[in-house]
Design a protein that fits this description.
By secondary structure, the protein is mainly α. 58% of the residues lie in helices and 5% in strands. The radius of gyration is 19 Å and the shape is elongated. 30% of the residues are buried.
Amino acid sequence: MGNRLSKIYTRTGDDGSTGLGDGSRVAKDSLRVGAYGTVDELNSTIGMVLASDGVADDVREALTQVQHDLFDLGGELCIPGMAMVHDADIERLEQVLDAFNDPLPPLKDFILPGGGMAASCCHLARTVCRRAEREVIALGREEEVRPQAQRYLNRLSDLLFVVSRVLARASGHGEVLWNHERRRKPQA
């Protein structure tokens, strides 16, 4: 492990810059800082899911592993040229996704965010994940970003959608379905 902070504030960022993991300094609003900052936000929203009541052990185990992966991904984005997320991590996500999705009934309608606190938090994590993916894509247009970062986030958003369904069904609230018929005018 690198240097440990004995003092939390350094004042080095007071000028609007921050240090990357390789020691270089960039603006705090740079695309790279935005991307790894949103990955950090995503990790925090997954923490909200895990802090919710009624999260089954298999979901807890899967999302805890995801939190570790996201910490690695943040490190990869913070240190240009670093490789910390690999194809095997994406393949593992796909296996977990399939295991959670296989027992679910096929979707016939769109699902609204809801279905209990844990499911709602998971839907929030899914939307933050999509934003992180967009920010990684934007960064990749300007700087070198390994394709595994984007692929991991793409697969993770799918997993979070499926886990939201699992959590909603387990909570007893059930999935909240979009009512596309609500706007139709009644016949006179």
